[in-house]
Amino acid sequence: MKKTMHTAVLAAVLTTALLMTLVFAAGCSEGESAATEYTPEELGLQEISVAAPDFSLGTLDGGQITLSSLWGTPVLLNFWQLNCPPCKEEMPYLEALATEYKGRAYILAIDLGDSEDSVRDYFGDGQRDLIVPLDTMGQAGGTYSVGFTPTTFLIDADGIVRYVKVGPFANEEQVSAAMRLVTGGA
Q: Could you say which of 25, 74, 89, 139 would form a disulfide bridge with 182 (CB–CB 3.0 to 4.6 Å)?
């Protein structure tokens, strides 16, 4: 009798634990995924607070972009080069982020020193949400003291650089988590 009661209690506890796990695991609606929250340190971000230096550069699509014209909206600046394998590995994450944040933030992948033709060959002629400024002379890179690629600056809507990351993000989830730090989780 004691053994039967013990078995029944154990079965009830395990069933309850399983149900609680399923309820918590299914916290998102179908099609949603839970966003993993990271601390800035876990993302390899250095927290700072300085006004973002302004620049104007030509873009891959033939336009011109001036950073200060984007104020009022958060901005991710990523300095990269074609001869940088980690930069190329990270590029799909940035492209996905640009699509995710379209209309809410700007994602700029600033090429340092490569020719326009080489960058165009890399991206192809397809439509993209990612803005690709061309820093062929290294002016913006010098202004931002970029000594290693990739280097990423996260700028809030007031034009203040809040975080810097030297090196690549490990995955799309981490880039998105970093962006949430300057967009207020939006």
A: 74
Q: Which residues pair with 160 in a beta bridge?
A: 51
Residue 32: CB atoms within 10 A of its CB come to 8
- How many Cα atoms occupy the beta-carbon half-sphere of 13 within 13 Å? 6
Q: How many CB atoms lie within 10 A of CB 54?
A: 13
Q: What is the pLDDT of residue 14?
A: 32
Single pTM value for the model: 0.80
Question: Rounded to whole angstroms, what are the CA distances from 55 to 59, 144, 151, 155, 176?
Answer: 12, 10, 17, 14, 25
Residue position matching structure tokens 């309850």:
16
Q: Six-digit token pair at 172?
A: 């799309």
Listed range (30-34, 47-51, 109-113) with the worst mean pLDDT: 30-34
In this model, does residue 43 exceed pLDDT 50?
A: yes
Cβ distance 133 to 65 under 8 Å?
yes
The CA distance from 8 to 14, in Å, is 10
**Structure-token match 């990523």, residue found:** 78
